[in-house]
Amino acid sequence: MPEVFDTLTLASLPPVDEALRPLIRDFVAAHVEGLPLDRRARSWQGFDAAFSRSLGEAGFLGLTLPKAYGGQERGPFARFVVVEELLAAGAPVAAHWIADRQSAPLILHYGTEEQRKRYIPAICRGEALFCIGMSEPGAGSDLASVRTRAERTAGGWLLNGQKIWTTNAMHSHFMIALVRTSGTPADRQSGLSQLIVDLSLPGITIRPIIDLTGDAHFAEVFFDNVELPDDALVGQEGQGWAQVTAELAFERSGPERIYSSVVLLDAWIAHLQKIGRTDAAPLVGRFMAELATLRAMSIACTARLALGESPVVEASLVKDRGTTFEQELPIAIGDDLAGHPDEPVAPELYRTLLYVTHIAPSFSLRGGTREILRGIIARGMGLR
């Protein structure tokens, strides 16, 4: 156990990156002012392509990417500050989220120079929207068992199969799909590759999936003899598993694994302050202590990323504990409000609580289930 936790060394946000905070805070305030609480609580699922383009124009996308490709050439700490402010305010980030967080860094690290020039500048402008093709029916978080297959052809690749739970596929321009290019599912990690799929191509069918909240940010995607060019391949054929594992470190360690319920938390605290209740102070204090600890862990992971490392185990720890915290919040807040039935509560707060309560079970599914994450942690600790 100590050898894992020794790598989570506490770190601080550099002053040069903290200097971004008032700038992004002012930008966000100007764009989210007037949005109701339950809309802001949808921050991850809040799809607003115009907002994402405005972020790009203001220089808040592509913060870690080279200036040669349209980025700002700053480090992961700069992105941490910007993301933290976006999520804390409940800004609608879904349109650019995946492209900025995962797709662009993946293409930068593994793509060809032509791919970098073609995709990354458009991502930095908020104009190229990406989704991730990982999960499949019968596979879920067990990515090594994917069956979607791309066969070599004279001109490139022929893609067949299905992806599911693909966030915003119906709104995206491209998908980076994990597919099998050799062997069978029995070969597990061997024979997997990543391909960039233009979602406007013939043979692709996208069907939205409506969730319990009434939103449709997930989709299932079908590939029926989709012809891809040879340069659709990202990185080396057969190295998809190593690439996607590194990619997931970007997904699992950031503040996005802490702040999914924070708009509700802020609204509840504001409610307590408005009516002058102090009996919930111990619960508020517990939440603040947990949030501060998780934030410190996330910053420690960001420090590892800043050193060019891939903190897979550490990121899994942050994601596991962070989503547990996010899921506990609506339950505890709901119990508190229900325990004071004569207390006047704003309808907007009730709607926000209802939404977060409905969506919270998904927090420990997206980005890898709790069971998968704990398996990764156990292997990292030498327990498996």
Layout: helices, strands, pairs:
Layout: H1 2-5, H2 15-18, H3 21-32, H4 37-40, H5 49-57, H6 76-89, H7 94-110, H8 113-124, E1 130-133, E2 149-152, E3 156-163, E4 174-180, E5 192-198, E6 204-209, E7 218-229, E8 233-234, H9 240-252, H10 262-275, H11 281-306, H12 312-338, H13 347-359, H14 370-380
Parallel strand pairs: 1-4
Antiparallel strand pairs: 2-3, 3-7, 4-5, 5-8, 6-7
Can you characterise this structure?
This protein is α+β, with helices and mostly antiparallel strands and 384 residues long. The protein has three domains: 2-129, Acyl-CoA dehydrogenase/oxidase, N-terminal domain (Butyryl-Coa Dehydrogenase, subunit A, domain 1, Orthogonal Bundle), CATH 1.10.540.10; 132-238, Butyryl-CoA Dehydrogenase, subunit A, domain 2; 243-380, Butyryl-CoA Dehydrogenase, subunit A, domain 3. It is built from 14 helices and eight strands. The chain has helices spanning 2-5, 15-18, 21-32, 37-40, 49-57, 76-89, 94-110, 113-124, 240-252, 262-275, 281-306, 312-338, 347-359, 370-380, and strands at residues 130-133, 149-152, 156-163, 174-180, 192-198, 204-209, 218-229, 233-234. The protein has a four-stranded mixed beta sheet, with helices on one face. It has a four-stranded antiparallel beta sheet with strand order 2-3-7-6, with no helix packed on it. Strand 6 (204-209) and strand 7 form a beta hairpin. Helix 12 crosses helix 14 (370-380). It is globular, with a radius of gyration of 21 Å. It starts with a helix and ends with a helix. Residues 1-5 have low confidence and may be disordered.
